[in-house]
Each structure stands twice: as structure tokens, then as C-alpha cells.
Amino acid sequence: AYPSQLGLQDASSPIMEELMNFHDHTLMIVFLISSLVLYIITLMLTTKLTHTSTMDAQEVETIWTILPAVILILIALPSLRILYMMDEINNPALTVKTMGHQWYWSYEYTDYEDLCFDSYMVPTSDLKPGELRLLEVDNRVVLPMELPIRMLISSEDVLHSWAVPSLGLKTDAIPGRLNQATISSNRPGLFYGQCSEICGSNHSFMPIVLEMVPLKNFEDWSLSMI
Amino acid sequence: MLTARALSLISKRAISTSVCVRAHGSVVKSEDYALPSYVDRRDYPLPDVAHVKQLSASQKALKEKEKADWSSLSRDEKVQLRRIQFNESFAEMNRSTNEWKTVVGLAMFFIGFTALVLIWEKHYVYGPIPHTFDCDWVAKQTK
């Protein structure tokens, strides 16, 4: 990401790539329709011609009923395809749980041993030079890259939402409910996200940082954290 | 009429335009929009009535002269006859105005005023921006 960015962050997971392409497709349709409408409005406003008698317009009415229906189908089909793709069986290699709190996330890696820790935002005054304001955390979520990982998301108090845009993830954290998301990163690196459901005064100050590393590094890290 | 009927449902007193006009009929004139009227409209070139209804004495004389051979009418008389029938010519009724200059001017004025308000706000209300916006910090961030 960079300052004044307008578009989506670069995709780092296969689902996000699909979503980016879908977004390009849909946004193009939206731009075409909007520019057509804007053009017609300027035509309407800049003519001296008038026509005040009531009109019958069966042909154009048919067209502007059928054509939008066709356009909507052209949007719905790729959308549903991606929706179903998200729910495919993928045999996760690892399951991690995250609980939303006011105002931090806690993570539990309990497949083998009991590894649990909290992840608080680093206050602006404590940032090291070059770190990102309001995005860095004290304990990052270290995960192996290029593997499907099951993420179970819930909350200990109010609604939160666990979101990492570059991986195409956003899942609500609902108290009393387990939601599941699948993480799969194409490459190593740091992936940032922020809480995406209003949860009180520090809702803007509970970010998420995923550190995707090779499997060996992940194993070393989890050993060091227990 | 509709107002009178609607209001008479609510109150016993009939409160309507026609009553008010009848009370002040000596000084006020009200239009009956149901009668044919004169309009200057580009898309209605032949109005239902003439522009001037009551002709003055000279206008009446001119109308009499119009019944004779038209080549005897001077140019000014022809124009006067036209002005009896019509108020504005097509060129006059379609003329552009300078209204847009007023609109654009006011819009720019208010945008400028808003800019002044924002400058005042930045100086007197807001605190300093976070240190993470310093040049070297941004340079370290942006790899």
C-alpha cells in the first residue's frame, strides 16, 4: 500500500486475485453505465428542442428493461463463482483461533501445544523509525506461507471483524459464534489489516498483522513462543 | 377551488382566494388561469390571445388602417401592429442572460470562504500532525 492509494491492495492469495479481477469487471460496467447516464443528462440539459406531448415508447422501454437484467446476470455469475470457490474443501494444515476483545486480538495455536498470546497495537509514541502508525502490533500472527490455514474467529465481548485486505479476508467476530476463514498466502511478508466492525472507543486501534514465513521459520517461532 | 373545498372540511368559514379578492377587488387583480392567455414561448409560437387586449385610440385607428391596402402602412406602423399582437420577438424571448456569471461567481465566493474557514480551523483548532509524517519517517516506511 502507498499514500493516496485508490485501488485494492496487491493480491497475496488466490481468492484475492479472483476478487480483484471481478472488481475490475464490475467497476468497468459501473463506469460505462455512469458515463452513459452522465452523457445523456448533458444532452438533456443542453438542447433547445422540446417535446411536450405524451409519448408511447414501447421499444426503448423493452430495451432498458432487458439490458439491465442481462448486465446483472453478467455480474452475478462471476460473483457466485467466487463465493462458492471460497467454500471449497481445502484440507487446512493448521488451525488457529483468534478472539476479538475490546481492544485487542488474542491468538491461540492449539493444534499441538498451547500457544496463546495477545496482540496489542503499538502506540504512536513507541514506534520504531519507519514503522507504520496505527498498524504495527507487539506480537504478530506468524503463519506458514503457501499452506491453507483454517482461522476460527470469535469474540469475547462485542462484535469485531477480523480483516486482512491483501489476502481477501474479512470475517465478523461474533460473541458466542465461531466463524471460519481460510488463509492461504502466495508469498512471504507482512500483511496488515484493521478491525472492521465498530466496537467502541478504540475500534480504530486494534490492528492485525500477519507475518507469513517459510514453514521452517514458523516451526522455530512457535517453539520459541511456547 | 380545491383549497376552498378542502379547507371547508376543516372549518366552517370559507377561506379562499376568491373571497379575499372579492374583498379587495378595487385594488387587486387576480388571474383566472383557466382562461386563454398570452405566452412568449419558443415551443408555442401562436399564442391563444393577442398581447394587447385594450387598444388605445391610436391603436384602434391603426387597426382600421390595417383593413385597407397594407402597402400604405409605414414600417413603424407595421412594427406597432406586430407589438399589439406579440410581446417579444423570438430573438428577444430566446436571448441569453448573464445569470451564469452570477451563479459561478457566488459559487467561487463561497468555496473561497470555506477555504478561509478551513485555514482558520487548521491553525486554531487542530493540534500538530503525528511525527510519522516526517520526511525521513515516510522515506523509511516506503521501501
TrEMBL record, chain A:
Membrane topology, record value: Multi-pass membrane protein
Segments forming domain Cytochrome oxidase subunit II transmembrane region profile: 1-90
Domain Cytochrome oxidase subunit II copper A binding: 91-224
Transmembrane stretches, start-end: 26-45, 65-84
GO cellular component terms given for this protein: mitochondrial inner membrane
Domain of life assignment: Eukaryota
Reactions that this protein is recorded to catalyse: 4 Fe(II)-[cytochrome c] + O2 + 8 H(+)(in) = 4 Fe(III)-[cytochrome c] + 2 H2O + 4 H(+)(out)
Keywords assigned by UniProt, alphabetized: Copper, Electron transport, Magnesium, Membrane, Metal-binding, Mitochondrion, Mitochondrion inner membrane, Respiratory chain, Translocase, Transmembrane, Transmembrane helix, Transport
Primary subcellular site in the record, as a coarse category: mitochondrion
SUPFAM superfamilies recorded: Cupredoxins, Cytochrome c oxidase subunit II-like, transmembrane region
InterPro entries to which the protein is assigned, alphabetical: CcO_II, CcO_II-like_C, CcO_II_C, Copper_CuA, Cupredoxin, Cyt_c_oxidase_su2, Cyt_c_oxidase_su2_TM_dom, Cyt_c_oxidase_su2_TM_sf
Needed co-factor(s): Cu cation
BP term (GO), one: ATP synthesis coupled electron transport
One Pfam family linked to the record: COX2
Cofactor note: Binds a copper A center.
Record family assignment: Belongs to the cytochrome c oxidase subunit 2 family.
PANTHER family xrefs: CYTOCHROME C OXIDASE SUBUNIT 2 (PTHR22888:SF9), CYTOCHROME C OXIDASE, SUBUNIT II (PTHR22888)
Annotated function: Component of the cytochrome c oxidase, the last enzyme in the mitochondrial electron transport chain which drives oxidative phosphorylation. The respiratory chain contains 3 multisubunit complexes succinate dehydrogenase (complex II, CII), ubiquinol-cytochrome c oxidoreductase (cytochrome b-c1 complex, complex III, CIII) and cytochrome c oxidase (complex IV, CIV), that cooperate to transfer electrons derived from NADH and succinate to molecular oxygen, creating an electrochemical gradient over the inner membrane that drives transmembrane transport and the ATP synthase.
Subunit structure: Component of the cytochrome c oxidase (complex IV, CIV), a multisubunit enzyme composed of 14 subunits. The complex is composed of a catalytic core of 3 subunits MT-CO1, MT-CO2 and MT-CO3, encoded in the mitochondrial DNA, and 11 supernumerary subunits COX4I, COX5A, COX5B, COX6A, COX6B, COX6C, COX7A, COX7B, COX7C, COX8 and NDUFA4, which are encoded in the nuclear genome.
Protein name: Cytochrome c oxidase subunit 2
Organism annotation: Myodes glareolus
Lineage: Eukaryota, Metazoa, Chordata, Craniata, Vertebrata
From TrEMBL, chain B:
Signal peptide positions on this chain: none
Main location: mitochondrion
Localization terms from the record: Mitochondrion inner membrane
Description of how the protein assembles with itself and partners: Component of the cytochrome c oxidase (complex IV, CIV), a multisubunit enzyme composed of 14 subunits.
Regions that span the bilayer: 103-120
UniProt keyword list: Membrane, Mitochondrion, Mitochondrion inner membrane, Transit peptide, Transmembrane, Transmembrane helix
Biological process, per Gene Ontology: mitochondrial electron transport, cytochrome c to oxygen
GO cellular component: mitochondrial inner membrane; respiratory chain complex IV
Name the UniProt record assigns to this protein: Cytochrome c oxidase subunit 4
Family classification: Belongs to the cytochrome c oxidase IV family.
Entry keyword annotation includes Mitochondrion: yes
